[in-house]
Design a protein that fits this description.
The complex is a heterodimer of chains A (214) and B (398).
Chain A lengths: L2 E9 L16 E5 L3 E5 L6 H8 L6 E7 L2 E2 L5 H10 L1 E4 L11 H12 L4 H10 L15 H13 L5 E5 L7 H18 L2 E6 L10 E4 L1
Parallel strand pairs in A: 3-8, 3-9, 6-7, 7-8
Antiparallel strand pairs in A: 1-2, 1-4, 4-5
Helix pairs in contact in A: 3-5
Chain B lengths: L1 H7 L5 H33 L8 E7 L3 H6 L7 H9 L3 E6 L1 E2 L3 E8 L2 E7 L2 E2 L20 E7 H14 L7 H6 L1 E8 L2 E13 L9 H11 L9 E6 L5 H10 L1 E4 L1 H44 L1 H9 L4 H41 L9 H30 L4
Parallel strand pairs in B: 7-9
Antiparallel strand pairs in B: 1-10, 1-11, 2-10, 3-6, 4-5, 4-8, 8-9
Classes of the chains: A alpha/beta (214), B alpha+beta (398).
Chain lengths: 214, 398
């Protein structure tokens, strides 16, 4: 997948609103593979909705969203499964980790599906993020900031053309967010992938090529 | 798969599943048992003549005081027989021919000898419900095959033997006893050997092959009238009211007991169907418990299922653990109910064998087949229900 386009897209809940001034909604915008984007938003402007549409979780929008010029509203179940496994990696704002599983198991449950990274690589990321000692800890017992780092590792154990990171550093200090940005970009470059980061306030310090205001 | 299961087994209620398990086990067992019992008991009642197909009536003339005094004949004349044969409900008529001379039979059991006067009758071979290759008489061989009414054996086994502390005897044992038959008449005497080759449900007499009766009547009572006193009539439909009407008008009597076997079969079938329906109802209710339990489980694990789907697990893969869980439980229920069936069946077969020693043991194939069909149907519904539930989550409708 090389291009994600939003053509005149608008969440249906905004249909009645006439005061929309956005770089994303009701306009034509394209995200290309290999580039780095920041989507800045205020609360309630539909940032999480945008991520849900792109990941195929919600479809309550008007207009069109296209992957490589294919209208994604026509995608079936197996196509979406394939995209989520091989083309599109997503760091959810609400993380969507499994509190019953340990940090390592949360990553493995994804890696078992893709078989993309070996355990050594995963463990080295845990160490790099400073949570090497938390590998066997239940996610439910970890702080949100620590969980954000586990969610990042889980997002990296799959092949992807785009990485959609929804507020990845909201609970991280500057050092950790810098480390996270480095590792994320390193992996994205290796895969030649596009990266879309969203933020409602503080954001990763990265050389963004385009900044959209939602 | 292990991790997925670790996640999805959260909230599984052992109590609910155990409730389903035992209810379904009970229901399945009742269903299979009612079918199997019906299959096992059926041959004892239906034998050769199926109770729907056609039936046999034994017809005789009424014996009245006046008739006995005036000496009017209780035998059937040829014209009367032809008339019965011409009736639309009749498909065949056979004559009972009795021995017209003196017969005595002697047999020995473990050194003790018994002897008794008796008589033989014959009917055409097509009416004999015991199939035996030996069912003919050859003067050179000098062996007479004999068929006894099955009720005689039952009378002995269930009336006489228990009260006298004698062992029960099976049909096979009776078949091994050899007797000597002494025939006297027309100034001659001759002995032949006799052997019981079978037991009849249909014919309530001591039966010998027709060729033996004809030969012996010719030899020992050439001048006696061998006109039959009883006829056997095969009818297409024993429920036909014209039968009763015709025989009533003619002043004939019908031994109706054969119709009773048909009625017994009918009731047996009705009872089996009712019990099977109860079993199916219990199974259906237990199935309902399972579905509720699974739905509740999926509901409680909605968030986990949704997360799995969002990180790239397919609905099929996420459904699989619950599908395997239900299929596994259904399979265990099937196996256990079949095992229980075998135990219960062995128990009642022992009882049945003492009542119907000649009964075929049959197989439990019908029950296995029905069990498999139920298993497949119920499992398929389970599989689709789980899949539907997961798809509802996929479509974000939960």
């Amino acid at each position: 997948m090389n291009k994600i386009q939003l053509q005149n897209a608008l969440p249906k809940v905004f249909a009645q609103r006439t005061d929309i001034e956005s770089d994303i909604w009701k306009t034509n915008v394209a995200f290309e593979r290999g580039h780095l984007y920041l989507v800045q938003a205020n609360s309630g402007t539909g940032k999480s909705s945008m991520c849900s549409y792109i990941i195929g979780y919600r479809h309550d929008y008007s207009g069109q969203i296209l992957f490589d010029n294919d209208d994604i509203s026509r995608y079936g179940t197996s196509k979406w499964v394939d995209i989520r496994k091989h083309s599109l990696s997503h760091i959810f704002q609400e993380l969507r980790l499994f509190p019953e599983l340990t940090a390592m198991e949360n990553v493995e449950i994804k890696n078992n599906l893709t078989g993309y990274k070996d355990k050594k690589q995963i463990l080295s990321w845990f160490d790099a993020f400073g949570i090497g000692d938390k590998v066997d800890q239940k996610i439910g017992k970890m702080s949100f900031g620590q969980q954000q780092r586990v969610a990042m590792i889980r997002a990296l154990v799959q092949p992807f053309d785009f990485l959609l990171a929804d507020e990845p550093i909201s609970h991280l200090d500057e050092t950790n967010s810098r480390i996270m940005a480095e590792i994320m970009m390193e992996e994205a470059k290796k895969q030649g992938a596009g990266v879309i980061v969203t933020s409602i306030g503080k954001h990763m310090e990265l050389p963004y090529e385009h900044i959209f205001h939602l | 798969m292990k991790l997925v299961w670790k996640l999805l087994r959260q909230h599984i209620s052992i109590g609910q599943l155990a409730g389903f398990f035992f209810a379904n086990l009970l229901g399945m067992l009742i269903v299979l048992l009612s079918l199997q019992f019906y299959q096992d008991v059926k041959p004892a009642f239906s034998q050769e003549d199926s109770f729907i197909k056609n039936d046999y009536l034994i017809v005789s003339k009424s014996i009245s005081m006046v008739g006995s005094l005036t000496g009017s004949s209780s035998t059937f004349k040829e014209a009367e027989i032809d008339d019965i044969a011409a009736q639309p409900f009749t498909s065949a008529v056979g004559k009972f021919t009795a021995t017209q001379y003196h017969v005595a039979a002697a047999f020995g059991v473990s050194g003790m000898g018994f002897s008794s006067d008796l008589f033989f009758e014959s009917v055409p071979t097509q009416f004999v419900d015991v199939k035996s290759d030996d069912w003919h008489f050859n003067e050179a061989e000098g062996i007479v095959p004999i068929v006894l009414p099955r009720s005689y054996l039952a009378l002995y086994n269930f009336g006489y033997a228990p009260s006298q502390s004698l062992p029960k005897i099976t049909e096979d044992v009776v078949g091994m006893v050899e007797m000597v038959i002494v025939m006297r008449g027309n100034g001659q005497e001759q002995s032949v050997r006799g052997r019981v080759v079978g037991f009849s449900n249909r014919l309530n007499t001591i039966l010998a092959p027709e060729d033996f009766i004809n030969w012996s009547n010719q030899k020992f009572a050439p001048n006696e009238d061998a006109s039959p006193t009883r006829l056997i009539v095969q009818v297409n439909n024993p429920a036909d009211e014209n039968i009763m009407k015709y025989f009533g008008d003619q002043g004939y009597e019908i031994a109706e007991d054969k119709l009773d076997a048909g009625k017994t079969m009918f009731f047996l079938r009705i009872v089996s169907i009712i019990i099977m329906a109860i079993g199916l109802l219990i199974s259906a209710l237990s199935f309902y418990i399972l579905m509720l339990s699974i739905y509740l489980l999926v509901q409680k694990n909605t968030q986990k299922l949704q997360n799995l789907l969002l990180i790239g697990y397919s609905p099929a893969r996420v459904s699989l653990p619950y599908q395997l869980l239900t299929i596994g439980m259904n399979a265990v229920v099937l196996v256990l109910s079949l095992v229980a069936l075998v135990f219960v069946r062995n128990y009642y077969l022992d009882m049945l064998w003492s009542v119907f020693p000649e009964m075929d043991s049959g197989t439990i194939m019908p029950a296995i087949l029905l069990g498999l069909i139920l298993f497949v149907v119920v499992s398929l519904i389970n599989v689709f229900a789980v899949r539907n539930k997961v798809m509802a989550i996929w479509k974000n409708k939960e």
